[in-house]
Records
---
Amino acid sequence: MWLKNTLVLDLAATAIGVALSITSGIAFSRMNVPLKKALLYMLLILSLFPFTIMVIPPFYFMFAELRLVGYYSLIIPYSAGAVIFSSYLIKNAVDAIPKDFEEAAQVDGYTRTAALFRVLVPMSRPVISFAAVVAFMGALH
């Protein structure tokens, strides 16, 4: 029973955290986001704090104030904690990929979204898998 609960919690938090990290990391890397520099510094500073310190206040808020009991009260803070580190990591990996690959895919007829999912995501798959392992270990801890 405890193994099932742990796996459901960790896999859900990892999937949500990595999906949000991919979108935010690519957005920070390729798009003109308002206050991009300030947000990146905030992510960098938040990644310096221990994970448990950042998880306890949202968990307490959801448990005590919103009366969320169950998987949701742990999945949301764990996935948010994974986004903090992984989005900065994925942003740096996507920065290393030249924009020429994305432009060549658009010349070949792909839309910007298709070029994103057929060029950038497969090229950054090693970093995404590392982010998934780190997110899983963070939720497991």
---
Amino acid sequence: MMRKTLLSLALVGMIATAAMAVGPAVGPAGCLRGPLANTPLGKTIAGCFGRVITLRSDLNVTAEQRQKIRDVVMSHRSEIAATAKSVRDQRVALRDLVRSDQADTAQIRAAADALGQAVSDAAVKAVALRGEIAPLLNDDQRATIDKFLTENDAAINAFLDSVIKGS
């Protein structure tokens, strides 16, 4: 489950990064606008953002839960920041190599391996955080998160299927 979550989040991040490189922007009320707005990619990105916004309201987190979750996150703040920075630094290093005229396959593979290790470290830390936060949520809230992940995965899979089929 965590692997699917991380892969989904990584895929959404890659799609969003690719979309931003092409030049779309978020307009009023979070609507995607620009060259991708009415494309399958734009609709997938907008749908993912919409599901995140809906998830937040559907969870109905109480003030007490919010405070406890905040306390957990804040107690690990420096670890979370360091882990996120490592993933970002490795992603940027890989991106820069891919864009370089001098990079060879071995360098690109080494940078991709380093990014994979950073993502692996982040997954291990995420599991530890989940172990502290999940018990703070009730069964309905955990089911809502599961439904969110399933819907997000389905939307991304549908987009990728349409790209593969060329439609």
---
Amino acid sequence: MAEGTYAENLRFNGKNIILRSNNPMSPEVVKSTIIDGDQSGSVITFSGDEDETCRLSGFTIQKGSAFYGGGIAGHGTHATIKGNIITSNSADMTHGGGVHGCDGMIEGNVISSNSSNYYSERFIVYRIARRQHKRHVLLESNS
């Protein structure tokens, strides 16, 4: 996808696709390729049927608001989530203001300034992959 702001709430619907910015390795491109949920549900929703060949990389994922997974609602997906900025998202309860329910590889993401209503940072990224599937994830300024 080209740089720009896209007011969208995207659903993968079990499809093993690759969704990426035009240069997911460039911090400048990642910062300026924005998927904005406009506070109307999770920004990205996986069905849980996606496997590791499904990829999401190189975006700023922002302004999602949902019961759980304001930024990304995984539903047990095995998709690879790599090189994103996941910021300014919220969850109504305790379930992952930034990311919820992702069982695939989560690598090289910045997860910042997200919130959940009742608990602290440990619930900003809730029920995600086993430790060996999380690498180089930066959590900062979440509440």
